[in-house]
Amino acid sequence: MTSWLEDQLKDALTADAERIRPETLRPAARALPARRLALAVPLAAALVVVVIGAVAAMVAGTRGAPTAPATHALTGPRFLLMASADGVTVHDARTGKVTSRLGLPPTPEGSFREPGGYLLAGAGDGETFYIAQSVQSRETQVSSTRFHRARVDGQGRPAELVHDVIPKVLGTTASSLAVTGDGTRLSYSLDGKVCGKGKTLRFCPGAQLTVVDLPTGTTRTWTTNVSGQIESLSWAADRRTLGLVVGSEARVLDTAASGTTLAASRVVAPGQEVTASTINPDGRSMLIGHSRLSDGRRPHRYTVDEYSVTDGRKIRTLLSRDHEGESIARWNLIRYDGTGRHLLLAGNFHPLSRVDEGHVTSLVHPGSPDPELLGSRPVIEAAW
């Protein structure tokens, strides 16, 4: 961290530099006589040494920093969770460095969706987290999902780890997980499944969404005829409005309203190819990740756009990235913190990053490209 004096020198140098314009420069002077030049060189060298020393002192603490606010300037949650095939780790939310590892039960034998079959959710404070892990039996093809709660202390070490906070869920693989900011309501979704052939083709069942009231243990489930996944679950601060992505559309569901199917949900941005979303804690807007394919000209583009929940109006484009190549770039993760002022995001070609007042800071880069996925990177699962 620079001192007050160094900050003042930096500001002064910056201000002087900004005042330099072509019209303010004097015409070049005549060449100095040899004797005057001999005297000027030592003096100029001494001035250069002084200036270099001052500048070096000012930047010594910022060398190699990303084009974003310095680490000490970042606010918001202190820690985040990340999942991989090797387990779940706690990371400093300002540097991305690992601070500890959660002691979760060993993964049972079977198959699972990367990374490690884990889904993560956070209360948005960087302290309280929920972890789900789905593993499918190779013999029965039935998935079992267990749910755990973790809390970390001020050093990023586990302060509490509670296993099986709700009963184990059997059926298809869990596809998304979210918890309210006060930690009282947990939502999760299960993949849909298609059975039969021809005239007997049917959903058995379709994708399902369940909300659990944790203090009482009561549950409520919504069904859909979608055979894929319900993704990007996210809660507004009112504990009743739930954001989700289903059928490539971003929707909101009033979990206090009547109904047992997702037909009761409302589309926020109709006709949009959505890959991820998150609802602002205030419930008034939603961030939606889009993959926009090229019309034959490279590159493809993937964006994060903000929409009004009330009328579906596009408010702005928060972030836009271009991608060269044949594979499609997409956002896999978009998550607000509890205040709505800080954002986590990641994509198959974008590192896990945080966004603070428009500044993007890279935290963790994904693993090596997968040749079978046209160079796409492994999925990052994270929460704060």
Features:
4-stranded antiparallel β-sheet; 384 residues; mainly beta; 5-stranded antiparallel β-sheet; 2 helices; 2 domains; Neuraminidase; 27 strands; globular; transmembrane helix; disordered N terminus
Question: How much of the polypeptide forms β-strand, as a percent range?
Answer: 35-45%
What is the domain tally? 2
Indicate the radius of gyration in whole angstroms. 26 Å
User: Secondary-structure element sequence?
Assistant: HHEEEEEEEEEEEEEEEEEEEEEEEEEEE
* Ends apart, CA distance between termini: 26 Å
Q: Percent range for helical residues?
A: 10-25%
Uncertain runs: 1-70
Alpha-beta content class: mainly beta
Count the E strands: 27
Give a quick account of the main beta sheet: strands, pairing sense, barrel closure: 5 strands, antiparallel
Q: What is the typical, i.e. mean, pLDDT?
A: 82
CATH topology of the largest domain: Neuraminidase
CATH superfamily of the largest domain: TolB, C-terminal domain
Total of DSSP H or I helical runs spanning 4+ residues: 2
**CATH C-level class of the largest domain:** Mainly Beta
Just name the CATH architecture of the largest domain: 6 Propeller
Any idea what the shape is? globular
Transmembrane segments: 37-60
Keywords: Membrane, Transmembrane, Transmembrane helix
Protein name: WD40 repeat domain-containing protein
